[in-house]
Amino acid sequence: MRPIAEFKGPIVEFTGPEEVRAGLEETGYLVDDGLAVACFLALRLHRPLFCEGDAGVGKTALAGALAEALGAPLIRLQCHEGIDAAQALYDWDFPRQLLHLRAAEAAGAVDASQLESELYDRRFLVARPLLRALETSPSVLLVDEIDRADDEFEAFLLELLSEFSVTVPELGTLRAEVPPVVVLTSNRTREVHDALKRRCLYHWFDHPGFARELAIVRRRLPGVSARLASQVTALVQELRGQDLVKPPGVAETIDWAEAMDALGATEVDAEIAVTTLGAVLKYREDTERARALDFAAVLAGRGP
Length: 304
Known about the structure:
Blueprint: E1 2-3, E2 12-13, H1 17-26, H2 33-45, E3 49-53, H3 59-70, E4 74-78, H4 85-88, E5 90-92, H5 94-106, H6 112-119, E6 125-127, H7 129-135, E7 140-144, H8 151-163, E8 165-168, E9 172-175, E10 181-186, H9 194-198, E11 201-205, H10 210-220, H11 226-240, H12 250-262, H13 270-275, H14 284-291, H15 295-302
Helix pairs in contact: 1-2, 1-3, 10-11, 10-12, 11-12, 11-15
């Protein structure tokens, strides 16, 4: 990584995928070759990175790791059903405008046109996440769970990400000096429209294999015993092979290992695995199915 001299972008610039990998690993986020290349191209080409996959596989954490590696603030927009432009982009601070109006009237202001122009000054504009990202250089914008938003918001977001600018009727066009680094995530609860995907680089997040998941757990929980981390990872890998309503992600693997460690365990036995299932499984059907597993046999086959 080398510093940027005359560039109003991130504090550091990655010159290739290997530097992206090293930079992210310094933050504790481990990536494979495909994700390292996707991140590098998103940074180099100023293209949004669309991350899709099951919940808990590290999509949201990637944005935080990128922000830390780049030395840029993370600005997060959490999508939900019914979200609109006012919640995501900007809104006017009506209470402050009203106070200003009353103060001006008390001071004897009589010029209605001047008073109106003062009411729609930039100081009364409340910047929501999207506008904050456009006005902040450098920044990393996380649009989390875009699949939860509706079609109208998706179309609005498509337009904004195409130009990295927004028009406020009372103020004119506000444009990003340098486009933010944009990470969009989707848990695939519905299909996101092709028009938005075409504007982005795409990466599918699979559940990691045993070795990589164990490395993530050890990196995130260095105080947990190596045997406990290995056994918990093995159990989660086995659980994902079952017909579960919601297979556990890496986040749940970390939670399960942390829960057992908090109970003073240095290794897993069948009893503690069953009593702590609430840390890794969130549906009654999944818990019942997991209790039917032979934990001792799984541990005997994968434990160190």
